[in-house]
Amino acid sequence: MQPNVAGCAVEIIMKDVSTVRHEPRRVWEWARMAKDVAEGLG
What we know:
The protein is mainly alpha-helical. Helix content is about 40%, strand content about 0%.
């Protein structure tokens, strides 16, 4: 069950960038996944 957050601000924070392992594309993939999750909450 997902919370109903329509009309609310949602903040998703990446706290640890050590998992990037010198591969910047991992940050772009994370950003895409975070956007998908945030869009699915509305």
